[in-house]
Amino acid sequence: MNKTHRLYLVLGDQLSFDLASLKGLDAEQDTVLLVEVMEEASHVPHHPQKITLIFSAMRHFAEALKQRGIRVQYVTLDDPHNSGTVPGELRRWQTLLHAEELHLTECGDWRLEQSLKDCGLAIQWHSDSRFLCSRAEFSSWAKDKKQLRMEFFYREMRRKSGLLLNGDGSPVGGSWNFDAENRKALPKGVSPPSPVRFSADAITQEVLALVVKNFSSHYGVLDTFDYPVTHADAQALWDYFLDWGLAAFGDYQDTMASDEPFLFHARISAALNIGLLDLRELCNDVEAAYWAHRIPLNAAEGFIRQLIGWREYVRGVYWLKMPEYAGGNLFGNSRPLPEFYWTGATKMNCMSQAIGQSLKHAYAHHIQRLMVTGNFALLAGIVPSQICDWYLAIYMDAFDWVELPNTLGMVMHADGGYVGSKPYCASGQYIKRMSDYCRNCAYKVSESTTHDACPFNSLYWHFLMRHGDLLRGNQRMSMIYKNLDRMPESRQQALWQRGQFLLAKLDEGESF
Ligand code: FAD
Ligand code: SF4
Question: Is the CB of 430 under 6 A from ligand 2?
Fold first, then answer.
């Protein structure tokens, strides 16, 4: 009897052997299709290292599937018949292979999923089981709630996964969240582990050459590429973190230090997001390390909260709210993204450090993204879609479902408060407390209105003054506005004028 020939399209961020859509694959009969296409590599100017990571990991995954006896059709970017788009390639290969069924796991990008749904092909869709919470489950949790809060969602995920629970279902340590114990500054004498690096094999070398040839106009350094591109290397990166980083992750999660791009962070987000690591296995390893007394509770809970709390929460919000979500602009911002975001050419040391390492490694950790580059964009009133595109382009781990709610929601508060209950705005004092950046800066963090004053200080108050109508009513902002109201009128005016001066400089295209 003739069996049905199925074609399984696997996207560049779906490189998991147990991907939902591959469950029914018949190795003798069916084909897996992987395609490198120009549209996905260039709809924003992705960092060359990110394109390298994805194409190289795809090529390694294709080889691994072949070794398992699976038939694979692989389309390289420079294939002369490559149509340049995912729907175009799916259509082409359906015709060429006479495939009777097309199978695909749901996408990580609303834009791509919509284009596949609109392309006229009958695709059988599969829910992405790599996440703990499905799209449907999130929307039923969100239903009828006036306000969504990550903390309550996170507790649900703890209960669902059983992670860090006592026998009676209560949280280990008596509290769901040890966030307050994740905010230590880095003391002298504590140094982070050296980052583990992976050298480029022949497949990666080929991809590097392809990227140089096709994407040299994209911003970002390529020759520092050292990320894992196989499941085995991603596992080695994770094991290294378990041994050397995780114990101190809890204490120093929010700290920042000059010329220390990685500190005690795992650097696993890109590998996890493209399917080289498995969420449940990571969480189980962290929990096991806690029960084995290898790591303190603030590290275990802090790490698990990021994975099953924030990561799952932002995905839920994304699929609940797209496509309207992408157009959010609560403050009506109209200022274009300053050029120095693409070059790092600014005298603000914190910005130059965060942008510089992002260009060099396609990486910055959470607090640099939130409280330095993000905070500046919020205070300066940058157009949300422009700063979102920057994050999507520059970071190795950036995919729309995770980048957009983090940037548009958490950083820019442009969604009106779905992701964060208040804007994460801060003056230079926060950056001074959590880093050593201010010690080597051209600006004085102790000053707010002088010619050499830290720009974050006046821009912070300017932001609060210009958006008082929208923010004064927020309970969590009331103390801040009390401080503003207590300020003498002359001080308020001086801060406003200094803020105006800096914003005018940005409008003239100048850096400072
Ligand atoms: P660690 O600090 O070691 O954290 C462990 C893991 O927790 C991460 O690997 C990640 O998978 C998860 N995680 C932590 N915080 C978040 C979060 N807020 N949302 C989702 N997952 C989280 N993360 C991405 O994976 N892709 C993005 O495009 C992305 N864009 C961001 C944009 C902004 C403006 C901000 C503030 C954060 C963004 N994040 C994004 C979240 C976070 O910054 C990165 O996941 C983290 O820096 C990755 O480095 P790491 O693996 O060393 O993480
Ligand atoms: Fe950044 Fe201001 Fe500190 Fe300079 S003084 S590093 S601009 S916070």
Answer: no
